[in-house]
Amino acid sequence: MKTINVILFGIGNVGSAIINQILQANDQVFNKQGFQINVPIIVNSSLAFYNSNSLGHNWETDFKNFSVPYKIEDIIKFVKHHELENLVAVDATASSNIVNSYLLLIENGFHIVAANKIANSLSYDFYAQLRNHIKAYNRKFYYSTNVGAGLPVLSTLRSLKESGDEVLKVRGVFSGSLSFLFNQLSEGERPFSNILKHARNLGYTEPDPRIDLSGQDVARKLLIIARELDLKFELEHIEVQSLVPKQLNGQTSLEQFNARVLELDCTIEQFVNAKSTNEVLRYVAELDVKEQQAKVKLITVSKNSNYGLLQGTNNLFEIYSKQYGNEPVSIVGAGAGREVTATGVLKDLVAIAQSIANVQSYF
Ligand SMILES: NC(=O)c1ccc[n+]([C@@H]2O[C@H](COP(=O)([O-])OP(=O)(O)OC[C@H]3O[C@@H](n4cnc5c(N)ncnc54)[C@H](OP(=O)(O)O)[C@@H]3O)[C@@H](O)[C@H]2O)c1
Protein backbone atom coordinates (compact mmCIF):
# COMPACT_ATOMS: atom_id res chain seq x y z
CA MET A 1 0.00 0.00 0.00
CA LYS A 2 1.48 3.37 -1.06
CA THR A 3 0.98 6.36 1.21
CA ILE A 4 0.48 9.75 -0.40
CA ASN A 5 1.24 12.63 1.98
CA VAL A 6 -0.82 15.74 1.38
CA ILE A 7 0.19 19.07 2.89
CA LEU A 8 -2.96 21.15 2.73
CA PHE A 9 -2.66 24.93 2.43
CA GLY A 10 -6.03 26.51 3.23
CA ILE A 11 -8.75 24.98 5.40
CA GLY A 12 -11.66 27.26 4.44
CA ASN A 13 -14.64 26.20 2.33
CA VAL A 14 -12.75 24.05 -0.15
CA GLY A 15 -9.90 22.91 2.13
CA SER A 16 -12.19 21.57 4.86
CA ALA A 17 -14.33 19.73 2.28
CA ILE A 18 -11.13 18.17 0.85
CA ILE A 19 -10.15 16.80 4.28
CA ASN A 20 -13.60 15.38 4.92
CA GLN A 21 -13.80 13.77 1.47
CA ILE A 22 -10.33 12.19 1.92
CA LEU A 23 -11.29 10.82 5.34
CA GLN A 24 -14.43 9.30 3.83
CA ALA A 25 -12.80 7.79 0.76
CA ASN A 26 -9.62 6.32 2.28
CA ASP A 27 -11.08 2.99 3.49
CA GLN A 28 -13.78 2.36 0.94
CA VAL A 29 -12.30 3.77 -2.25
CA PHE A 30 -8.56 4.51 -2.13
CA ASN A 31 -7.33 1.42 -0.25
CA LYS A 32 -8.94 -0.80 -2.88
CA GLN A 33 -6.78 0.94 -5.47
CA GLY A 34 -3.61 0.30 -3.46
CA PHE A 35 -3.05 3.69 -1.86
CA GLN A 36 -3.92 5.73 1.19
CA ILE A 37 -3.99 9.53 1.37
CA ASN A 38 -2.60 10.94 4.61
CA VAL A 39 -2.77 14.60 5.59
CA PRO A 40 0.08 15.18 8.05
CA ILE A 41 0.04 19.01 7.90
CA ILE A 42 -2.77 21.52 7.47
CA VAL A 43 -2.27 25.28 7.54
CA ASN A 44 -4.20 28.51 7.35
CA SER A 45 -2.66 31.94 6.74
CA SER A 46 -0.73 31.96 10.04
CA LEU A 47 -0.92 28.60 11.81
CA ALA A 48 -0.02 24.97 11.08
CA PHE A 49 -1.12 21.74 12.69
CA TYR A 50 1.43 18.91 12.42
CA ASN A 51 0.71 15.23 12.89
CA SER A 52 3.24 12.76 11.50
CA ASN A 53 0.54 10.12 10.93
CA SER A 54 -2.61 11.70 9.56
CA LEU A 55 -5.61 13.72 10.54
CA GLY A 56 -8.62 12.16 12.18
CA HIS A 57 -12.26 13.21 12.12
CA ASN A 58 -11.59 15.61 15.03
CA TRP A 59 -9.11 17.65 12.94
CA GLU A 60 -10.91 20.97 13.52
CA THR A 61 -10.57 20.69 17.31
CA ASP A 62 -6.94 19.55 16.94
CA PHE A 63 -6.19 22.53 14.74
CA LYS A 64 -7.81 24.88 17.24
CA ASN A 65 -5.91 23.46 20.20
CA PHE A 66 -2.51 22.49 18.83
CA SER A 67 -1.70 24.66 15.80
CA VAL A 68 1.43 26.82 15.90
CA PRO A 69 2.87 29.66 13.80
CA TYR A 70 4.89 28.40 10.82
CA LYS A 71 7.09 29.28 7.86
CA ILE A 72 7.26 27.26 4.66
CA GLU A 73 10.79 26.14 5.66
CA ASP A 74 9.34 24.55 8.85
CA ILE A 75 7.04 22.43 6.70
CA ILE A 76 9.91 21.26 4.52
CA LYS A 77 11.99 20.46 7.63
CA PHE A 78 9.11 18.46 9.13
CA VAL A 79 8.53 16.25 6.07
CA LYS A 80 12.29 15.60 5.75
CA HIS A 81 12.67 14.81 9.46
CA HIS A 82 9.75 12.33 9.33
CA GLU A 83 10.94 10.95 5.96
CA LEU A 84 7.52 11.48 4.43
CA GLU A 85 7.37 10.37 0.80
CA ASN A 86 5.03 10.94 -2.14
CA LEU A 87 4.44 14.54 -1.18
CA VAL A 88 1.67 16.66 -2.65
CA ALA A 89 1.12 20.31 -1.74
CA VAL A 90 -2.56 21.14 -2.20
CA ASP A 91 -3.21 24.86 -2.55
CA ALA A 92 -6.76 25.63 -1.43
CA THR A 93 -6.03 29.29 -0.73
CA ALA A 94 -6.63 32.36 -2.88
CA SER A 95 -3.23 33.72 -1.84
CA SER A 96 -0.15 34.60 -3.86
CA ASN A 97 2.12 33.82 -0.85
CA ILE A 98 1.83 30.08 -1.39
CA VAL A 99 2.33 30.50 -5.13
CA ASN A 100 5.63 32.23 -4.34
CA SER A 101 6.71 29.00 -2.64
CA TYR A 102 5.71 26.60 -5.46
CA LEU A 103 9.21 26.49 -6.97
CA LEU A 104 10.80 25.77 -3.56
CA LEU A 105 8.20 23.06 -2.86
CA ILE A 106 8.86 21.43 -6.25
CA GLU A 107 12.63 21.50 -5.61
CA ASN A 108 11.92 19.68 -2.34
CA GLY A 109 10.00 16.86 -4.00
CA PHE A 110 6.39 18.09 -3.88
CA HIS A 111 3.83 17.61 -6.62
CA ILE A 112 1.35 20.50 -6.71
CA VAL A 113 -2.45 20.43 -6.93
CA ALA A 114 -4.01 23.89 -7.02
CA ALA A 115 -7.58 25.12 -6.68
CA ASN A 116 -5.92 28.55 -6.50
CA LYS A 117 -5.84 30.16 -9.97
CA ILE A 118 -3.09 32.66 -9.24
CA ALA A 119 -0.10 30.60 -10.45
CA ASN A 120 -1.68 30.13 -13.87
CA SER A 121 -2.74 33.73 -14.23
CA LEU A 122 0.48 35.56 -13.28
CA SER A 123 2.85 36.64 -16.07
CA TYR A 124 3.45 34.26 -18.97
CA ASP A 125 7.12 34.15 -17.93
CA PHE A 126 6.17 32.67 -14.55
CA TYR A 127 3.67 30.30 -16.23
CA ALA A 128 6.51 28.94 -18.43
CA GLN A 129 9.05 28.89 -15.57
CA LEU A 130 6.69 26.82 -13.41
CA ARG A 131 6.22 24.26 -16.19
CA ASN A 132 9.98 24.08 -16.81
CA HIS A 133 10.53 23.46 -13.09
CA ILE A 134 7.87 20.74 -13.03
CA LYS A 135 9.58 19.04 -15.96
CA ALA A 136 13.11 19.43 -14.57
CA TYR A 137 12.15 17.89 -11.21
CA ASN A 138 9.84 15.28 -12.76
CA ARG A 139 6.85 16.40 -10.69
CA LYS A 140 3.19 16.94 -11.58
CA PHE A 141 1.15 20.13 -11.45
CA TYR A 142 -2.62 19.62 -11.73
CA TYR A 143 -5.21 22.38 -11.52
CA SER A 144 -8.42 21.08 -13.11
CA THR A 145 -10.60 23.12 -10.68
CA ASN A 146 -9.11 26.40 -11.96
CA VAL A 147 -11.87 26.47 -14.59
CA GLY A 148 -15.41 25.18 -13.97
CA ALA A 149 -14.70 23.88 -10.40
CA GLY A 150 -15.26 20.10 -10.74
CA LEU A 151 -16.35 20.14 -14.42
CA PRO A 152 -14.09 18.47 -17.03
CA VAL A 153 -13.34 21.64 -18.99
CA LEU A 154 -9.54 21.75 -19.20
CA SER A 155 -9.34 17.99 -19.75
CA THR A 156 -11.82 18.26 -22.66
CA LEU A 157 -9.81 21.07 -24.27
CA ARG A 158 -6.63 19.02 -23.85
CA SER A 159 -8.11 15.84 -25.28
CA LEU A 160 -9.53 17.70 -28.33
CA LYS A 161 -6.11 19.26 -28.91
CA GLU A 162 -4.19 16.02 -28.38
CA SER A 163 -6.46 14.13 -30.77
CA GLY A 164 -5.71 16.59 -33.59
CA ASP A 165 -8.87 18.74 -33.48
CA GLU A 166 -8.50 22.53 -33.49
CA VAL A 167 -10.37 24.61 -30.92
CA LEU A 168 -11.63 27.77 -32.63
CA LYS A 169 -13.70 29.47 -29.94
CA VAL A 170 -14.68 29.01 -26.30
CA ARG A 171 -17.69 30.89 -24.96
CA GLY A 172 -19.89 30.66 -21.91
CA VAL A 173 -20.78 31.49 -18.34
CA PHE A 174 -17.60 30.64 -16.43
CA SER A 175 -18.41 31.92 -12.97
CA GLY A 176 -20.56 29.87 -10.60
CA SER A 177 -20.94 32.82 -8.27
CA LEU A 178 -21.98 35.31 -10.99
CA SER A 179 -24.26 32.66 -12.49
CA PHE A 180 -25.94 32.25 -9.09
CA LEU A 181 -26.19 36.02 -8.56
CA PHE A 182 -27.83 36.71 -11.94
CA ASN A 183 -30.07 33.60 -11.84
CA GLN A 184 -31.39 34.71 -8.46
CA LEU A 185 -31.73 38.29 -9.71
CA SER A 186 -33.89 37.05 -12.61
CA GLU A 187 -36.40 35.79 -10.03
CA GLY A 188 -36.87 39.46 -9.23
CA GLU A 189 -37.57 39.18 -5.52
CA ARG A 190 -34.44 40.45 -3.78
CA PRO A 191 -31.91 43.25 -4.24
CA PHE A 192 -28.51 42.26 -5.65
CA SER A 193 -26.63 43.08 -2.41
CA ASN A 194 -28.88 40.70 -0.49
CA ILE A 195 -28.32 37.90 -3.02
CA LEU A 196 -24.56 38.53 -2.76
CA LYS A 197 -24.69 38.06 1.01
CA HIS A 198 -26.55 34.77 0.55
CA ALA A 199 -24.00 33.58 -2.05
CA ARG A 200 -21.12 34.36 0.32
CA ASN A 201 -22.76 32.39 3.13
CA LEU A 202 -23.09 29.42 0.80
CA GLY A 203 -19.35 29.61 -0.04
CA TYR A 204 -19.98 30.44 -3.71
CA THR A 205 -17.99 33.66 -3.95
CA GLU A 206 -14.27 34.31 -3.73
CA PRO A 207 -13.07 35.29 -0.23
CA ASP A 208 -13.14 38.90 -1.56
CA PRO A 209 -16.32 39.01 -3.73
CA ARG A 210 -14.94 41.95 -5.69
CA ILE A 211 -12.68 39.40 -7.44
CA ASP A 212 -15.90 37.91 -8.88
CA LEU A 213 -17.79 41.16 -9.42
CA SER A 214 -14.91 42.95 -11.12
CA GLY A 215 -14.75 40.20 -13.75
CA GLN A 216 -11.19 39.38 -12.60
CA ASP A 217 -12.01 35.78 -11.67
CA VAL A 218 -13.70 35.12 -15.04
CA ALA A 219 -10.83 36.87 -16.86
CA ARG A 220 -8.34 34.61 -15.04
CA LYS A 221 -10.28 31.54 -16.17
CA LEU A 222 -10.36 32.80 -19.75
CA LEU A 223 -6.61 33.46 -19.55
CA ILE A 224 -6.00 29.91 -18.29
CA ILE A 225 -8.08 28.53 -21.19
CA ALA A 226 -6.21 30.72 -23.70
CA ARG A 227 -2.84 29.51 -22.37
CA GLU A 228 -4.05 25.90 -22.43
CA LEU A 229 -4.68 26.50 -26.14
CA ASP A 230 -1.08 27.73 -26.56
CA LEU A 231 -1.83 31.46 -26.75
CA LYS A 232 0.85 33.44 -24.93
CA PHE A 233 -1.74 35.75 -23.38
CA GLU A 234 -1.35 38.09 -20.41
CA LEU A 235 -4.30 39.22 -18.26
CA GLU A 236 -4.11 42.66 -19.93
CA HIS A 237 -5.07 41.07 -23.27
CA ILE A 238 -8.55 40.40 -21.92
CA GLU A 239 -11.19 43.10 -22.24
CA VAL A 240 -13.06 43.15 -18.93
CA GLN A 241 -16.31 44.82 -17.89
CA SER A 242 -16.29 45.33 -14.12
CA LEU A 243 -19.54 45.41 -12.13
CA VAL A 244 -17.94 47.04 -9.08
CA PRO A 245 -18.77 50.74 -8.83
CA LYS A 246 -15.57 52.82 -9.09
CA GLN A 247 -15.97 54.25 -5.58
CA LEU A 248 -15.93 50.71 -4.07
CA ASN A 249 -12.89 49.43 -5.93
CA GLY A 250 -9.22 50.36 -5.63
CA GLN A 251 -8.75 52.23 -2.38
CA THR A 252 -11.52 50.61 -0.32
CA SER A 253 -10.71 47.71 2.00
CA LEU A 254 -12.84 44.56 2.06
CA GLU A 255 -14.44 45.77 5.33
CA GLN A 256 -15.34 49.13 3.74
CA PHE A 257 -16.77 47.33 0.70
CA ASN A 258 -18.91 45.12 2.94
CA ALA A 259 -20.18 48.13 4.85
CA ARG A 260 -21.16 49.96 1.63
CA VAL A 261 -22.37 46.94 -0.36
CA LEU A 262 -25.85 48.51 -0.90
CA GLU A 263 -24.22 50.89 -3.41
CA LEU A 264 -23.91 47.90 -5.77
CA ASP A 265 -27.70 47.78 -6.18
CA CYS A 266 -27.72 51.08 -8.05
CA THR A 267 -25.20 49.87 -10.64
CA ILE A 268 -27.00 46.59 -11.25
CA GLU A 269 -30.39 48.31 -11.47
CA GLN A 270 -29.18 50.25 -14.51
CA PHE A 271 -28.54 46.97 -16.36
CA VAL A 272 -31.88 45.53 -15.23
CA ASN A 273 -33.75 48.61 -16.46
CA ALA A 274 -32.05 48.45 -19.87
CA LYS A 275 -33.31 44.94 -20.73
CA SER A 276 -36.76 43.82 -21.90
CA THR A 277 -39.06 41.61 -19.79
CA ASN A 278 -38.31 38.39 -21.72
CA GLU A 279 -34.57 38.87 -21.27
CA VAL A 280 -32.19 38.11 -18.41
CA LEU A 281 -28.63 39.20 -17.60
CA ARG A 282 -25.65 36.83 -17.96
CA TYR A 283 -21.95 37.49 -17.39
CA VAL A 284 -20.30 35.89 -20.42
CA ALA A 285 -16.69 35.14 -21.43
CA GLU A 286 -15.54 34.62 -24.98
CA LEU A 287 -12.22 33.64 -26.55
CA ASP A 288 -11.81 33.77 -30.31
CA VAL A 289 -8.69 31.68 -30.84
CA LYS A 290 -8.15 32.62 -34.51
CA GLU A 291 -8.57 36.37 -33.93
CA GLN A 292 -6.74 36.12 -30.57
CA GLN A 293 -9.46 38.20 -28.92
CA ALA A 294 -10.80 37.68 -25.42
CA LYS A 295 -13.50 39.54 -23.52
CA VAL A 296 -15.75 39.17 -20.50
CA LYS A 297 -18.91 41.21 -20.13
CA LEU A 298 -22.50 41.41 -18.95
CA ILE A 299 -25.00 40.78 -21.75
CA THR A 300 -28.73 40.37 -22.10
CA VAL A 301 -30.04 37.06 -23.47
CA SER A 302 -33.48 35.61 -24.11
CA LYS A 303 -34.96 33.83 -21.06
CA ASN A 304 -35.42 30.72 -23.22
CA SER A 305 -31.89 30.47 -24.61
CA ASN A 306 -29.24 28.00 -23.30
CA TYR A 307 -27.75 30.89 -21.39
CA GLY A 308 -31.09 32.17 -20.10
CA LEU A 309 -32.13 28.74 -18.81
CA LEU A 310 -29.05 28.25 -16.60
CA GLN A 311 -29.95 27.42 -12.98
CA GLY A 312 -28.23 27.86 -9.60
CA THR A 313 -24.44 28.06 -9.81
CA ASN A 314 -24.39 26.29 -13.18
CA ASN A 315 -21.67 27.11 -15.67
CA LEU A 316 -21.93 26.66 -19.41
CA PHE A 317 -18.86 26.09 -21.58
CA GLU A 318 -19.35 25.98 -25.35
CA ILE A 319 -16.27 24.71 -27.19
CA TYR A 320 -16.31 25.31 -30.95
CA SER A 321 -13.81 23.24 -32.90
CA LYS A 322 -12.94 22.41 -36.50
CA GLN A 323 -14.33 18.86 -36.27
CA TYR A 324 -17.52 19.73 -34.33
CA GLY A 325 -18.35 22.61 -36.71
CA ASN A 326 -21.29 24.82 -35.79
CA GLU A 327 -22.49 22.57 -32.96
CA PRO A 328 -20.23 23.25 -29.98
CA VAL A 329 -19.21 20.67 -27.42
CA SER A 330 -21.21 21.90 -24.40
CA ILE A 331 -20.37 21.30 -20.77
CA VAL A 332 -22.99 22.35 -18.22
CA GLY A 333 -22.97 21.87 -14.46
CA ALA A 334 -22.18 23.30 -11.05
CA GLY A 335 -19.27 25.71 -11.43
CA ALA A 336 -18.90 26.63 -7.77
CA GLY A 337 -19.40 25.16 -4.33
CA ARG A 338 -17.10 23.68 -1.72
CA GLU A 339 -18.09 20.03 -2.28
CA VAL A 340 -17.84 19.95 -6.10
CA THR A 341 -14.57 21.88 -6.00
CA ALA A 342 -13.16 19.51 -3.38
CA THR A 343 -14.19 16.57 -5.58
CA GLY A 344 -12.32 18.17 -8.49
CA VAL A 345 -9.20 18.58 -6.31
CA LEU A 346 -9.53 14.95 -5.24
CA LYS A 347 -9.68 13.85 -8.90
CA ASP A 348 -6.29 15.58 -9.42
CA LEU A 349 -4.90 14.04 -6.23
CA VAL A 350 -6.12 10.59 -7.19
CA ALA A 351 -4.52 10.92 -10.64
CA ILE A 352 -1.16 11.58 -8.89
CA ALA A 353 -1.76 8.78 -6.36
CA GLN A 354 -2.63 6.32 -9.16
CA SER A 355 0.55 7.14 -11.04
CA ILE A 356 2.59 6.64 -7.83
CA ALA A 357 0.78 3.39 -7.01
CA ASN A 358 0.98 2.26 -10.66
CA VAL A 359 -2.78 1.91 -10.96
CA GLN A 360 -3.95 1.80 -14.56
CA SER A 361 -6.83 4.18 -15.18
CA TYR A 362 -8.54 4.37 -18.57
CA PHE A 363 -8.74 8.15 -18.23
N1 LIG B 1 -15.42 28.03 -3.39
C1 LIG B 1 -15.53 27.61 -4.66
O1 LIG B 1 -16.62 27.31 -5.15
C2 LIG B 1 -14.30 27.49 -5.52
C3 LIG B 1 -14.40 26.96 -6.82
C4 LIG B 1 -13.23 26.82 -7.60
C5 LIG B 1 -12.02 27.25 -7.09
N2 LIG B 1 -11.99 27.80 -5.83
C6 LIG B 1 -10.70 28.29 -5.34
O2 LIG B 1 -10.37 27.61 -4.13
C7 LIG B 1 -9.57 28.47 -3.33
C8 LIG B 1 -10.11 28.49 -1.89
O3 LIG B 1 -11.42 29.01 -1.90
P1 LIG B 1 -12.31 28.96 -0.56
O4 LIG B 1 -13.69 29.30 -0.98
O5 LIG B 1 -12.06 27.69 0.18
O6 LIG B 1 -11.65 30.17 0.29
P2 LIG B 1 -11.79 30.45 1.87
O7 LIG B 1 -12.97 29.76 2.43
O8 LIG B 1 -11.64 31.91 2.08
O9 LIG B 1 -10.48 29.73 2.49
C9 LIG B 1 -9.20 30.20 2.21
C10 LIG B 1 -8.24 29.47 3.13
O10 LIG B 1 -6.91 29.81 2.74
C11 LIG B 1 -6.19 30.22 3.91
N3 LIG B 1 -5.10 31.13 3.53
C12 LIG B 1 -5.17 32.41 3.10
N4 LIG B 1 -3.93 32.90 2.86
C13 LIG B 1 -3.08 31.89 3.15
C14 LIG B 1 -1.67 31.77 3.14
N5 LIG B 1 -0.88 32.78 2.75
N6 LIG B 1 -1.12 30.60 3.53
C15 LIG B 1 -1.89 29.55 3.91
N7 LIG B 1 -3.24 29.60 3.95
C16 LIG B 1 -3.82 30.76 3.59
C17 LIG B 1 -7.24 30.90 4.77
O11 LIG B 1 -6.75 31.02 6.09
P3 LIG B 1 -7.26 32.23 7.06
O12 LIG B 1 -8.59 31.79 7.53
O13 LIG B 1 -6.23 32.27 8.12
O14 LIG B 1 -7.29 33.47 6.20
C18 LIG B 1 -8.37 29.87 4.60
O15 LIG B 1 -8.14 28.74 5.43
C19 LIG B 1 -9.58 29.85 -4.01
O16 LIG B 1 -8.39 30.02 -4.74
C20 LIG B 1 -10.76 29.76 -4.97
O17 LIG B 1 -10.58 30.52 -6.14
C21 LIG B 1 -13.08 27.92 -5.05
From TrEMBL:
Pathway: Amino-acid biosynthesis; L-methionine biosynthesis via de novo pathway; L-homoserine from L-aspartate: step 3/3; Amino-acid biosynthesis; L-threonine biosynthesis; L-threonine from L-aspartate: step 3/5. It holds the Pfam family NAD_binding_3. Keywords: Amino-acid biosynthesis, Kinase, Methionine biosynthesis, NADP, Oxidoreductase, Threonine biosynthesis, Transferase. It catalyses: L-homoserine + NAD(+) = L-aspartate 4-semialdehyde + NADH + H(+); L-homoserine + NADP(+) = L-aspartate 4-semialdehyde + NADPH + H(+). Residues 152-350 form the Homoserine dehydrogenase catalytic domain. This is Homoserine dehydrogenase. SUPFAM superfamilies: Glyceraldehyde-3-phosphate dehydrogenase-like, C-terminal domain, NAD(P)-binding Rossmann-fold domains.
